[in-house]
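In response to reviewer comment 3 from the previous cycle, which asked for concrete evidence that the modeling workflow produces usable outputs, we include below a single protein chain processed end to end. The sequence was submitted unchanged, and the resulting structure tokens are shown without manual editing.
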Amino acid sequence: MRCDTCGNDYDKTFRVTGPRGEFVFDSFECAIQKLAPTCAHCGCRVIGHGVDAGETIYCCEHCSRAAAKSAAGHAGQGAARRARH
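The workflow returned the following structure tokens.
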């Protein structure tokens, strides 16, 4: 069968069925690329539990904190700019 991610025709494929449908893969690497969410901060694939912050997912606590600091910094910069004008 043909892998849904890379198109490789392989005799040892496996199927994954879930809420997004049914997919055929030739490796876990291809399954991860197709199905795993992406960290909102660093962009890596989240293949473990990850950290949920509302609708946003991060690969780890470090990325979650870094994104929160970045968002707070951007919000503060906007307020400072408005105060100067």
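Strands lie at 14-18, 21-25, 51-53, 56-58. We consider this sufficient to address the reviewer's concern, and the full set will be provided in the supplementary archive.
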